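Worked problem 6 (solution included).
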Amino acid sequence: VFELTGRLFATNKPRFVLVHVVSPHPPFVFDEDGQVVSNDWRTSDGSHFMQEGGTLKEYEEGYRRQVQFVAKKVLETIDKVYAQNLRDTVFIVQSDHGPKSRLDYESLEQTDLNECLPILSAVGGPPELMSKFYDDMTPVNTFRIVFSNIKKDKMPLLKDKSYYTTWDRPYDFIEATDLVKK
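Solution. The predicted structure is:
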């Protein structure tokens, strides 16, 4: 994906490019330089990672190393695009959740929500767009703000809330907004 940058932005036509990078989720197979360091294919976070024989230390180390590698590649890609003087380019770098080393898939009470619910959310773009973002915003409003700014059609903002669900009951949403420390 990172190698496609030149071709994706080769014309002046508007582009919407969404890239979903699964890393740094398990399996933790890369080090901070992108070298394969493991062929361990445990694929779950939190309590499931531990049930598969992993340890907290392995999770934290693997997660850290893969975050370092992915961050380096994302920044290189952004630099390549900005080097082409595409000043109106908007970048959204957003995680779907934080680390989940202390997630219990079956218990809200045993889950560290302050670890897994806050996300990385970095947005770059023209100043008139950037002025619309605010503290304590949840990802539900990120694209609404961007598209409202680009299209000039106002999309109403939704309430900024966070939810937790268990593995066995994924549609039984438990609001956890007030359980996360600000």
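Discussion: The mean pLDDT is 86.
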